[in-house]
TrEMBL record:
GO terms for molecular function: microtubule binding. It comes from Papilio xuthus. This is Sperm-associated antigen 6. GO terms for cellular component: microtubule cytoskeleton. GO terms for biological process: cilium movement.
């Protein structure tokens, strides 16, 4: 090697080239990881092994890009997130969390959130690594975005279960979250309110004890719709838990702004306000009476006329809770002209709430109430066009009530029997799997007895195959065309030809 090649300048150039290559690689992986379709290919190429040393690289930019790349990979794929826990990438990141600048902290907290989001198991593993202590320390950081990412991570960990939410609360995070919510930055307020929602779903008493109600109510004065929605959702999560917490929410001044925001121009805000009112009135006659006395029926009835935005369901439930508390409150709901609005909803074929029971996004309570309403309504319904769509869409637990009504209609209505066949309803009930001795099977037998046996067989599954089998097994009975005696018509033809 020549003397010029071994000079300090050239030696430094080698290291600079190596650092530039590491940075280029980390940046490229971070860019590729933005697309979920690339994750499997990157994982197969062994990207995690290559990223592991880079998360503690001597160059700050390389470190940050490597952690961001790891976070994006973990965010898209649960298996990759698990590998990061098992392979030590998160442990290395946590060890370096307070050694480097705020940019590294932001990226590290993003990685924690990306892993914790998937399920309770991964979130529990993160907690066992002592992550909460590091997050609490970041909540006290001066940088706003560090606090945002820390609050976000707390919400993603605590949302999975009561146990994890309890560990987040026990780490002393709630006072810090309440303080962060009072900061002037809108994005920090939004994320903190979201974290309070996640924790209030499992630990509402702790959220109230942290003195959050009054601050959340004051947060509704802000004009940002996203912040209003998150704040109303946090208050709703507290109020829904039990009557004492609903009373604490009302005592904190949440009722007047909830009624005001029921008429907000943003649909998500209106829905959140309706949910809060629903979760207040559901508990007791006193709270329902208070909402009525404050003028709550009018805004709720107005929400029933909406065609989108999702506010109609919680508004309808809120009115139902109010009316169910007493005759006097039921009359107040009637006087607020709720009945015409409810009738219009039932008559609207395009109402999005028609499939509440089968919608996987519906909560358990909504499904239970939808099922109860369907049962009660079906037991009074003898209108065939209303019953017919349910034959094809209703689950078994609802279908038996539909067939019970058909069993009442068909024996006495010839036209209904004809339509039952022509619309494919008879064929549909033959396809239903039933167990002998059940009410569903009995109703099907009653309906089948209203039709000729050959019609029922014709629409039974497998009947076409039976007919084809009979065709194959059939021996043709062909009459003799020619005998010793010539038919008379043939004789006349022969005479004419001759």
């Amino acid at each position: 090697m020549s003397h010029s090649m071994s000079s300090p300048k050239n030696i430094q150039l080698v290291f600079d080239t190596y650092q530039k290559a590491r940075l280029t690689f980390a940046q490229a992986i971070a860019d590729l990881a933005t697309r979920s379709t690339n994750v499997k290919c990157l994982d197969s190429a062994g990207v995690l092994e290559l990223l592991r040393p880079l998360v503690s690289d001597a160059c700050s930019t390389v470190r940050q890009c490597a952690v961001v790349a790891a976070a994006r990979l973990a965010e898209h794929d649960e298996a990759v997130a698990r590998q990061m826990l098992d392979g030590g990438i998160l442990t290395t990141t946590l060890e370096n969390l307070h050694k480097f600048n705020v940019y590294y902290k932001r990226s590290a907290l993003y990685l924690i959130r990306a892993i914790a989001k998937h399920n309770e198991e991964l979130a529990s593993m993160i907690v066992r690594f002592g992550t909460l202590e590091h997050i609490v320390a970041c909540m006290e950081d001066f940088d706003t975005q560090v606090k945002e990412n820390a609050a976000w991570a707390l919400g993603y960990i605590g949302k999975h279960s009561e146990l994890l939410a309890g560990k987040v609360v026990d780490a002393g995070t709630l006072p810090l979250l309440v303080l962060a919510f009072q900061e002037p930055e809108i994005s920090l307020k939004q994320i903190t309110a979201g974290a309070l929602v996640d924790l209030a779903k499992h630990k509402p008493e702790a959220v109230v004890d942290a003195g959050s109600i009054c601050h959340l109510v004051r947060g509704l004065d802000n004009q940002d719709p996203k912040l209003k929605r998150s704040t109303l959702c946090a208050l709703s999560a507290v109020a829904s838990a039990r009557v004492e917490l609903a009373e604490a929410t009302v005592a904190g001044g949440a009722l007047p702004p909830a009624l005001l925001h029921a008429a907000h121009h943003a649909a998500p805000v209106r829905r959140a306000a309706a949910c809060l009112l629903r979760d207040i009135v559901r508990h007791s006659i006193d709270l329902a009476q208070l909402v009525v006395n404050t003028g709550g029926c009018g805004p709720l009835v107005e929400l029933l006329s909406e065609n989108g935005g999702g506010a109609r369901v919680p508004a309808c439930m809120a009115l139902g809770f109010i009316a169910g508390q007493s005759d006097q409150l039921a009359m107040a709901v009637i006087e607020a002209k709720a009945i015409p609005a409810l009738v219009e909803i039932l008559q609207n074929d395009e109402a999005e709430e028609a499939e509440l029971y089968t919608n996987p996004k519906s909560s358990g309570e909504v499904r239970a109430r939808a099922l109860c309403c369907l049962k009660q309504a079906l037991q009074c319904c003898l209108h065939r066009p209303a019953l017919e769509p349910l034959l094809h869409a209703a689950p078994a637990c609802v279908l038996k009530y539909v067939l019970a009504q058909y069993a009442k209609i068909l024996p006495n209505d010839a036209r209904a029997r004809r339509l039952f066949v022509s619309t494919g309803a008879l064929k549909r009930i033959q396809e239903i799997d039933t167990v002998p001795g059940t009410s569903l099977k009995e109703y099907i037998n009653i309906i089948n007895s209203c039709f000729p046996e050959e019609i029922v067989r014709y629409y039974s599954p497998g009947y076409s195959e039976t007919l084809l089998d009979r065709v194959e097994a059939y021996t043709p009975q062909i009459p003799e065309l020619f005998t010793d005696r010539v038919p008379s018509d043939c004789q006349s033809e022969l005479t004419l030809e001759n």
